[in-house]
Structures are given as structure tokens and as C-alpha cells.
Amino acid sequence: MEDILEKVEEKRKAGYIEVWAAFEVVATSEEVSRSAMEKHLDALARVEGVLVYERKLGETKQIDPKPFKVNEAFSTIAEAKFLVKDLPTLVNVCLAYAPSAIEVLSPKELRVKMEEVQDIANLLAGLMHKFAAQGVGGIVIKAR
Fold this sequence. Notes:
2 domains; 4 strands
């Protein structure tokens, strides 16, 4: 435990962004829901530039299956606290791991380099192109 606390303090001093996030997984069985959430949090912990230092897995509950058009649905909610090296990494985590909610715990202010803004803009532009290529989004440009 002391080892992780030392790493957390080291990352804070290095200017990492400290984040609390909530996640939800819905599946058609209790086991799959819980297992998927555990794998999801494990994958987040393996992201370069991310240090997960706390995770809480909530109980899995049966929920209304109608919105998901299945016979049964089970939800597992989890919370995690982690540090990310920079703003582009935080945006990437949000896009790739789809938290239900995010709270930036520290720092109170953040100075952003133009290179980071460019990285974020390119990440979002690339995502829009992926959506468009799949036929599920994008921007329609009309010739007049």
C-alpha cells in the first residue's frame, strides 16, 4: 500500500491530473456484467500515462431490460480514482472508457500547451471520421 501512495505522491508532484470517475456496465447476466466491469477497470489501469490508485466495485443489480431490448439486464457500477499525465490522456480515457461521470480532483488550475490542444482536436477529428466511416455519424457536407 505504501508503494502505491509513494507513486501517487510522485505523480501529483509531477503535475498529473487527479480524477474520480464512475462507470457502469450493463449485460444480460450478473456474471458477465461484473466480469466485464473488472476487465474494464483492469484495462484502464494498463493505459500508458494512467495510474489507478483506488477502485470500488459496486454490487451488481438487476435492472429494467426494456431500454436494452433484452429479456434480462444487470448493471454493475464502479468508481475509480486515478492520475493522468496530461489533458490529452484524460480526453482519450473519456472517449475509450466512457465513464458515466468525471470529477477532476486536482489541480485547481491547469496550464495547457498548444500542442496538447492540437492533440485533443486531432483525436476528436479522428473519432468523427471513424463514426462517419461506420455510417453512424459525421458531418454531411453539401455542394451548392
